């Protein structure tokens, strides 16, 4: 349920960062300058003020945080949807927080859920966004085998609920809304590489199947109702903000902890799986560019390079001058019921039509993740030593 922001009822805030969780549109609170980010990833500044409002689902995730930084730097007012829970997971966007009483604030959060169409309609009515970025998902592939029904409800049917809400608002108000749907390279599954926009889907997990459904819902609403709706088929993209249950971050966290004597072994599954890994901060730029085009379309976003999990291991441990073979053991529990062996994206269309290309190389990506997690491990070691 959304918290009302009225003189009689102060906006509800998180105990951690105090984010305003309200329904107040902020069209009148547009910055007169362009925010320069102080975080580890700096987006280009000097871009003219866009005077736009964006709504992001999944705003507290890796991609949501980088996208929020990008849009605020471009002068947007950003609204995010967060699920109500007993704890707040706003760590990735804490640095963007401004006091809810600040008239120049550019970030507002709302309680809502892709499983609740009523909350989606309420938020759309309140925010009146120019652009919507649907990034929310149960996105862990291995977990999707254990929670298949939940994954399908949030990822597939949740997308349908949001699209239907957008269609309804556009039909009733006449306001144009541009919609971005987060696709995944997992939709290609067992399809032979390289994979492009014309490659047939061959999903190999409940998560991938749900993403394929969300993809076709988006295409259908574009063709049936004339919505400006785009699918971004993003290949694996990582950063130091990646969740620690994902293999790349699991590796870099272990490297830091092993280096500081906090961990002895790292247990993994299939080391031969190959993925096209890029930097998440680069990929959110592609999302934004899709919604700035004259006509909606679907795009693959990828680096065009594939590396195995073993290669990632070698690069990560080499960063701290360790041999990964001394620390890594294979645990069959981490193998998927149906493996995806090789994902390699062909982003030629995005390069040609969006003018997009990745900026962070594979070695640089591994290095920044390891360096970040080394610092986390160093702090953890200091805390342990002091207790």
From TrEMBL:
Assigned keywords, A-Z: Lyase, NADP
Catalyzed reactions per annotation: GDP-alpha-D-mannose = GDP-4-dehydro-alpha-D-rhamnose + H2O
TM annotation in the entry: none
Biased composition, class Polar residues, residue ranges: 1-16
Pfam families: GDP_Man_Dehyd
Record-linked CDD domains: GDP_MD_SDR_e
Positions contributing to NADP(+) binding: 179
Cofactor: NADP(+)
GO biological process: one example: 'de novo' GDP-L-fucose biosynthetic process
Domain NAD(P)-binding: 55-369
Region (Disordered): 1-24
SUPFAM superfamilies: NAD(P)-binding Rossmann-fold domains
Coiled coil (residue ranges): none
Enzyme Commission code: 4.2.1.47
Gene Ontology terms, MF aspect: GDP-mannose 4,6-dehydratase activity; NADP+ binding
Role description: Catalyzes the conversion of GDP-D-mannose to GDP-4-dehydro-6-deoxy-D-mannose.
Family listed: Belongs to the NAD(P)-dependent epimerase/dehydratase family. GDP-mannose 4,6-dehydratase subfamily.
Name of the featured protein: GDP-mannose 4,6-dehydratase
Organism of this sequence: Chloracidobacterium thermophilum (strain B)
Organism phylogeny: Bacteria, Pseudomonadati, Acidobacteriota, Terriglobia, Terriglobales
């Amino acid at each position: 349920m959304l918290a009302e922001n009225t003189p009689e009822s102060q906006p509800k805030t998180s105990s951690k960062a105090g984010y305003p969780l309200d329904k107040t549109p902020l069209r009148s609170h547009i910055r007169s300058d362009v925010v320069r980010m102080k975080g580890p990833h700096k987006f280009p500044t000097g871009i003219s003020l866009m005077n736009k409002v964006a709504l992001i689902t999944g705003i507290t995730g890796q991609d949501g945080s980088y996208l929020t930084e990008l849009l605020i730097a471009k002068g947007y007012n950003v609204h995010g949807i967060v699920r109500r829970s007993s704890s707040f997971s706003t760590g990735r966007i804490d640095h963007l927080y401004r006091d809810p009483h600040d008239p120049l604030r550019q970030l507002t959060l709302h309680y809502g859920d892709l499983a609740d169409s009523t909350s989606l309609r309420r938020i759309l009515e309140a925010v009146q966004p120019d652009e919507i970025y649907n990034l929310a998902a149960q996105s862990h592939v291995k977990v999707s085998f254990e929670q298949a029904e939940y994954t399908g409800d949030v990822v597939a049917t949740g997308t349908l609920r949001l699209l239907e809400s957008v269609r309804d608002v556009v039909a009733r108000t006449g306001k144009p809304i541009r919609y971005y749907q987060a696709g995944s390279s997992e939709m290609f599954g067992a399809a032979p590489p390289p994979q492009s926009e014309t490659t047939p889907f061959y999903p190999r997990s409940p998560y991938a199947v749900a993403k394929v459904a969300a993809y076709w819902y988006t295409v259908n609403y574009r063709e049936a109702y004339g919505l400006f709706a785009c699918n971004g088929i993003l290949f694996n993209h990582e950063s130091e903000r990646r969740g620690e249950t994902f293999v790349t971050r699991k590796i870099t966290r272990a490297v830091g902890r092993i280096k500081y004597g906090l961990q002895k072994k790292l247990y993994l599954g299939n080391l031969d799986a190959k993925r096209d890994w890029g930097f998440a901060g680069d990929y959110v730029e592609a999302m934004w560019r899709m919604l700035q085009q004259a006509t909606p379309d679907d795009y693959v976003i990828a680096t065009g390079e594939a590396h195995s999990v073993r290669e990632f291991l070698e690069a990560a441990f080499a960063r701290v001058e360790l041999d990964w073979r001394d620390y890594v053991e294979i645990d069959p529990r981490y193998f998927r019921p149906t493996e995806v062996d090789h994902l390699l994206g062909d982003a030629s269309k995005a390069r040609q039509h969006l003018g997009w290309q990745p900026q962070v190389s594979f070695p640089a990506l591994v290095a920044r993740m390891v360096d970040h997690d080394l610092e986390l491990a160093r702090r953890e070691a200091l805390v342990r030593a002091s207790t």
